[in-house]
Amino acid sequence: MKKLLYAIIASAILWCLATCGQNTEKKDGLVGSITAVGSSALQPLVEVASEKFQEKHPDVLINVQGGGSGQGLSQIVAGTVEIGNSDVFAEDKKIDVQKYAIQDYKVAVVGIAPIVNHSAGVTNVSTQELIDIFTGKITNWSQVGGNNVNIVVINRASGSGSRATFEKYALNGTEPMTAQEQDNSGTVKKLVKETQGAISYVSFSYLDKTQYQSLSIDHISPTAENIATNAWKIWAYEHMYTSVEQDAITKAFIEYMFSEHVQNEIVPKLGYIPVNIMRIERDAYGNITEK
Fold first, then answer.
1. d(Cα 264, Cα 165) in Å, to the nearest integer?
2. DSSP string spanning 216-283?
């Protein structure tokens, strides 16, 4: 009788293990890896979201890389990655989305703010003063009410979506002077922190008052509330471009990016702005319409 009982128990355990495994596979079923490349402004959000997604799907690997919006758009067009992250519309890079069969997902809004080394001694500049600083007409912080410290301009690389957004909406399309260029926001914030008189710009997700000073422009502060009404004009949608024909992992991850957990918790926690709080919309040509 004991042998029979043991045999029944063993059979039950084996049956449970087999069926539990089948149910897990049916519930999840995602196995493999994808790569997301591009905007360094969007990178922190995608990294955190991918970590949470991978906790839910342990057989999935999401490889997140920076490199700038130009890199993200060129690679999604070439079909070498599953997701191309960008701060700018593909149209801004003269990319025909229909021709290349790519799909745009606006997963958040990012604000961009000028930042300065604490030695500058300023907290606000006018729009014209900001243009004059980046074009080399103003060369010392004392000229805008700050300390007698020479200005050191640090720009982003030409393929950067943050640079394109900053030049378009902060400098009103004015071409900045030739200055040192950096490929990613992480390097920019380090240099501004360590370089006397330095000025550059980063997304809100990189703002840190203990390391450097963000600037108001025309006495308007860089806040989510001001972006929602377009009072602060230096902002952009955070785009995740995919192929129209997505694989299962990419499709599931994009859906997760629009989940309540990501949009209501992760997005604002990291300094981004949920698309659904915006009171206005902006198209690829900069036209504004009220919602």
1. 25
2. EETTB---HHHHHTTSS--EEEEEEEEESS--HHHHHHHHHHTSHHIIIIIHHHTT-B-GGG-SEEE-
Please count the residues of the chain. 291
Minimal CA–CA distance to 196: which of 114, 121, 113? 121
Please report the pLDDT score of residue 26 as a whole number. Answer: 37
The answer to whether 233 and 67 are in contact (CB under 8 A) is no
Q: Tell whether pTM > 0.70.
A: yes
Query: Mean pLDDT across the stretch 57-74?
Result: 94
Tokens of 124: 């606000």
pLDDT at 28: 59
Which has more confidence, 187 or 10? Answer: 187
Distance of CA 155 to the CA centre of its chain: 18
Query: φ and ψ at 288, to 5 degrees?
Result: -105, 135
Q: First vs last Cα of the chain: how many Å apart? A: 75
Q: What are the CB-based long-range contacts (under 8 Å, 24+) for 277-285?
A: 277/224, 277/228, 278/109, 278/227, 278/228, 279/228, 279/229, 280/228, 280/229, 280/230, 282/230, 282/237, 283/89, 284/89, 284/91, 284/92, 285/91
Pairing state between β 102-116 and 198-203:
antiparallel
Identify the band that residue 161 occupies on the pLDDT scale cut at 50, 70 and 90. Answer: confident
Selection from 164, 158, 173, 117 nearest residue 141 by Cα: 117
Residue 18 has pLDDT above 70, yes or no: no
